[in-house]
């Protein structure tokens, strides 16, 4: 088994996607960035202006001996509204769409089975619309976006409280 693996998830603002993974055992790093678009090295302003096709995402480097990809997918579902294809909570637009980016058939199979399990759970009244797509180039976001929850704890708490936490409390007890 490899020492390190990677996973890429998009689920709204990357600021809110870092902490749940970063604080989990076996995580080596979580980097905010952009993926799924058609330009090279997009900036935050370009992505925000919907000119690049990218979505905000996190790239997670993890130790598969400590945490499995399956566990990461389960953490992912608990951070997103899988029934909302055009954003997450207060974050609206294609740059906030929910996507699990898979790098190989192993990840695709795990993500697909997990999605099917969620669809069959009856937890949600609406269809599960989160996409599972092939990994595309991942461009790290500017440094001021990295570790946002550590650098700006008060603003991070405001972001978390603006709908994401209420949703999680309703569906993920």
UniProtKB/TrEMBL annotation:
Residues 6-157 form the Peptide methionine sulphoxide reductase MsrA domain. It is an enzyme of class 1 (oxidoreductase). The keyword Chloroplast does not apply. Residues 151-173 are annotated as: Disordered. GO terms for molecular function: L-methionine:thioredoxin-disulfide S-oxidoreductase activity; peptide-methionine (S)-S-oxide reductase activity. SUPFAM superfamilies: Peptide methionine sulfoxide reductase. Belongs to the MsrA Met sulfoxide reductase family. This is Peptide methionine sulfoxide reductase MsrA. It comes from Ligilactobacillus hayakitensis DSM 18933 = JCM 14209. The gene is msrA.
